[in-house]
């Protein structure tokens, strides 16, 4: 891992308790320094992506409560279609959608509140799932030659004030 990436990314071996502990210490230090931290509390991609979340690990919630920082649930409804968890690295052409939900305060919460907070975040994230996006997609055909005269177009749409927390990113 290069010097730039290693400063922005906290490496964790999910199967190693020592590594998980070190990662939590690094994350706490980042929060104390005023830097945001993104944690994927499932720890891996779901067996039923876009349909069901895996059990969330509690560490992220304990960390947010201990540090007194808000949690911002993020739903990535189409990520599994862009980069499915299949053998080998396979990136597929797919639009991406990232929804930033309202921040949840951890002020006045204690470690005993972590399970309820964990469930609340899971419910919020799952509420934005799109039924039509469930499952692993077929292999991409975007690299196949286009028929003569075929054109592509890019759509750009302005986000209304009501949907300012939703960001849809088309791949290009």
Automatic annotation (TrEMBL):
InterPro entries the record matches: Plipid/glycerol_acylTrfase
Residue span of region Disordered: 135-172
Pathway(s) per entry: Lipid metabolism
Short name of one Pfam family: Acyltransferase
Alphabetically ordered keywords of this record: Acyltransferase, Lipid biosynthesis, Lipid metabolism, Transferase
GO molecular function, one term: acyltransferase activity
Compositionally biased spans, kind Low complexity: 150-172
Domain Phospholipid/glycerol acyltransferase: 2-79
SMART domains named among the record's database cross-references: PlsC
The protein's name: 1-acyl-sn-glycerol-3-phosphate acyltransferase
Organism: Hymenobacter volaticus
